[in-house]
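Entry 12.
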Amino acid sequence: MGVELGVPMSELARMPSAARHAPLRARRASPHQRYMAFLSYSHDDEKDAAWLEESLETFRVPPRLVGQLTDMGPVPKKLTPIFRDRHELAAAADLGEEIEEAIAGSRFLIVLCSRTAAQSHWINEEIALFKRLHEDDRVLAVILDGEPFASDDPDRAADECFPLALRTRFDSRGRATSQRAEPLAADLREAGDGRRMGLLKTIAGMLGVGLDELAQREAHRRQRRMMMITAASVAGMLATSGLAYTAIQARDEARDQRREAEGLIGFMLGDLRNKLEPIGRLDALDGVGARALAYYEKQNKTDMSDAALAQRSRALTLMGEIAQLRGDLDGALARYREARAGTAEMVRRSRNDPQRLFEHAQNAFWVGTIALQRGQIDGAETAFRDYQRLATRMVAIEPGNPKWRMETQYADANVGIVLYEQRRYPEASRQFQRALTTIEQFAAKQPANASYQQSVAESLAWLADSEKGEGRLDEAIANRQRQVELLSRLMKSGGSDVAYPQRLIPAHKALGMLLASRGETAAGERQMRLAVTYAEQLIPSEPDNMKWVEYAAGARLELANLLLATGRMADASAQTQTACAQANQLIRRDPNVAGWRLLVHSCLMSRGRLAFAAGSRNEALSLAIQALTVARSIESTDPSEDRYNAARTELLIGDIRQRMGQRQPAMAAWQAGLAGLPRSVAEQPSEMSDRALLLQRVGRPKEASSVYAQLDQIGFRHPAYLRARQFIQ
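Predicted 3D structure (C-alpha cells):
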C-alpha cells in the first residue's frame, strides 16, 4: 500500500476505521441515544408488539454479562426504553418528526415481520430511514407469520414477510444497493423458535452475546437459589454465610463497575475516535487516550484480562499516533513499544487468535514507521518483516478472512517501501504492482468501500515513485494522475474528512514534479499550486499537526524551484520565505528528523539560488555553504540520496564561485561534488542530471554527453536542468 514517504501509516497497516462510516447522509443519527430500540410493526400485529415491548423492558440482563464489551457495545443492565408508535399513519404524508427523531435516537430497529408488514409502506420507510442513519447489523427481524424471501418465487410472493428495505443492503453512505441483506431473524412461531427462544434470540442480538449464555440464565438462577437454601440450613454458619454473601455481592458489583468502565473506554477508543479522527481533532483524541490510560494505570497489568490488555494497547497506540503527528517521535516510539509489549503478552496467551496477531502486527508496523521516518532503514525492515510474518500467520489460521488477506497486501507493500529505499526500483515496482492488483480486486468487488479506494490511491503513489526511479516518467505520470483523480473523487463524497486533502497535498506535488521533469512547466506549476492550496486550507484548522506543515513546506519549495527556473523571482521568493518559516517550525520540534533537516537544506538552497540570480553572490555563497553543512549532517533512509544532495550543493557553490571569478575554488567544489557521488547505484533522472552537470563542469564532456543522451532518451526536460546545462556555455 503506497503512500508518500513519511506519511503516517495507519493508511497502510489498518485503514482508518472512520472510512467505514457514512461521511454524508441525508440525516444523522442523534448523538444521544434516547431509545434502546424502535419497534416497527403493522397495527394488525399490535398485540404481539405490546407483548414484545413489555417482555424486552422487563427483561433483566444477567449481572455477569453487564458491562461486557461486545460487537454491539457495552452490555447494558436493562433493555429500556423501547419506542413503540401507537398511532396510525395511514393518513399521514410522511413519517413525522417524532417518528424520525425516535428512529435517529434508537440503538436498534426491531421489525415485526408478517404478511401485512411486508406490504406496509410505512414500515418500509422506517426501515429505510434507520438504515440511512445506522449500520445494517442494528436491524433485527422477528417473524410472526409468512416466509422470508418468499417473493423470490413469483408464485409465493403473497407469503413474503420481509419488507423490501429489510431485504436490501445499504452501503456505507446510507444508500440502497442491489445486494441482498440477511437480517438476524427470530421466529416466534411454534414451528420456529417459539416465543421464549425467539425472545431470547432477539435479546442476544441486541446484546451481542451468544444465545446459549441467555438460555442458561434460569439454570444459573436455580443453582444460586439452591446454594442460598443450603447455606441457610446450616444455622451455625448463618452469620458467616451472610458476610460471605455480602462479600460476593460487593465483588460482583465491583466487577460489574469495571466492565461498565471498560465498556465506556471501548466506546471512546472506537466509536468516539471514529467521529473525531476525520475532522482532525488531535486535542480531543489525545484526551481520549489519556483518560483510557489513566484508568489502566491503576490496575495490575499482569492480572488484566485479554480485553483490558487489548484496550490499553489501543489507547497507547492512539497516543503514539498523535505524538507522531505532533512531531514528538521519541514520545511516539515509547508509546508504540509499550503497546507492542502488551499485544505480545496477548499473543503469548492465545498464539492462534488472529485478532490478537492483528493487534500485535499494528504495533510492529508503527515502530517501523518511526524507524523509516528517522532514516533507520534496517530497523524499518526488521519491523516490517515482523509485520509481514504476523499477517501471513493470520491468513494461515483463517484463509477465508478478507481482512487478514488485506493485511498481507499492506505488509507486502511495506516491504516494497524498504526495497524502494534500497534503490531496488524494478523489484519495488513489481512488489507495488502486485499490491495494487490485489487491492484493485477488493475495490472492484466493493466500490463503495472508501478504505479500499484509499488503498488503491496509496498503491498508485508508490508504484509511480518506483517507476520514476526506473526512469519511466510517462508511466509514473499516468499513475499519479490516476491517484489524484481517485482522491479528488473520494474527497467530493467525503464531507469534512481531512484524510483526502491531506493525501492530495503530496499527490499534487509529486505529479507537478513529474510534469515539470518532462518539460510541461505550466501543468506542473498548476499541480504544485493545488498542493499549496490544500495545505493552506488544512493548517489553520490544526496548526499543531506537523505532518501538514511538512507537506506544505515541501510543496512550496518545489514550486519555488520551478518558478525560479522560469524567471519569476518575486513569486519564488515569497514561496521560499513561507516554506523556510515552516521548515524552521519543524526543526524546532525535533532536529533529528531526517526529512525535516532535508527541508532546511532545500530552504537554504532555494534562498541561495535566489540570491545568486539577483546578483548577490556573497550572500548566495554563504547560504550555499550553510546548505552544504546541513546536507553533510543528514542521515536518511537512503545514504546515496544524502550524497546526491551534498553533490548538488557543491554544484551550486562551484557555479557561484565561477561567477565570482574564483576559478580554482569553483573547480575544487565541482570535483568534490563529483567525487562524493556514489558508484554503482541506481540513479533517478534528477540525480543523473546532477552527475552530467558536474562531469561537464570538470571538463569531462564525453562522459557528460553520454549521460545527457540517456536523459534525452528518458525525456527528462526539467527547466532548472536545461538552464544549468547552459551555464558553462
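Annotation: The radius of gyration is 32 Å. The mean pLDDT is 81.
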